């Protein structure tokens, strides 16, 4: 019987990294913005195999030994949208890890591909530009998402449920609007994400009654009302990060 290594350095010198099957780590991005009062997600048409020609989420491989999954997500966000997460500070959070052995056809060649998915939110994102491994990119209303490659439909569904739920009890909606904003613009975000109309008066009361949720934008230009009436007041984010009590989403129409 061989003796165990005396210390960690001895263990590492004798460690064989080829003793385990190879796997690849990737990141996928569910990037959302509101365009024309519709919640849209960024999709790319794959220009390479596997699933060449199919629509998918933007993403790519984590550079082995050079970056973390978070760093790769920031890099991919910049490459696919032009948004520098370190400067523009959009909302970017890790969603989940997807590791089903059947999720990627490269598994048949012996490569297990694991993806860490992220959700990104930002207002007024620019027109989509295809990255190096995509032939086309577009903003797609979430109600019109086509069949997607890999398990990306599941990632989209999980991402949608995440942001819809978090709008109930956090200030996540404010990452979809630029400051200063009107309450009407904020309400349109809720309506776009939840997919239901909201009563304007009730919405206004709820937002203004929540302590430190919004604050008047001092010195901000006041825009006229849509119908030429009383000018719309402008607001900025307050110090609150949670909505207490929660602002529960109404049931979808027809229920």
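^ structure tokens above, recovered residues below v
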């Amino acid at each position: 019987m061989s003796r165990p290594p005396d210390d960690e350095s001895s263990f590492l010198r004798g460690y064989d990294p080829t003793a385990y099957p190879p796997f690849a780590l990737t990141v996928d991005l569910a990037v959302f913005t509101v365009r024309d009062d519709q919640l849209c997600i960024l999709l790319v048409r794959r220009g390479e195999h596997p699933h060449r020609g199919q629509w998918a989420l933007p993403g790519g491989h984590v550079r082995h030994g050079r970056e973390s999954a978070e760093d790769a997500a920031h890099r991919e966000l910049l490459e696919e949208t032009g948004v520098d997460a370190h400067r523009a500070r959009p909302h970017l959070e890790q969603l989940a890890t997807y590791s089903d052995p059947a999720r990627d056809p490269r598994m048949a060649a012996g490569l297990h591909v694991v993806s860490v998915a992220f959700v990104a939110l930002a207002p007024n994102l620019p027109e989509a530009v295809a990255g190096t491994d995509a032939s086309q990119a577009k903003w797609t209303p979430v109600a019109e998402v086509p069949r997607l490659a890999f398990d990306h439909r599941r990632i989209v569904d999980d991402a949608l449920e995440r942001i819809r739920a978090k709008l109930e009890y956090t200030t996540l909606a404010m990452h979809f609007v630029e400051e200063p904003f009107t309450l009407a613009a904020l309400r349109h975000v809720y309506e776009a994400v939840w997919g239901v109309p909201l009563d304007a008066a009730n919405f206004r009361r709820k937002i203004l009654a929540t302590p430190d949720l919004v604050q008047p934008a001092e010195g901000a230009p006041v825009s006229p009302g849509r119908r030429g009436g009383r000018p719309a007041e402008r607001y900025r984010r307050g110090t609150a990060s949670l909505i207490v009590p929660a602002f529960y989403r109404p049931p979808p129409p027809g229920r």
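The chain has a mean pLDDT of 86.
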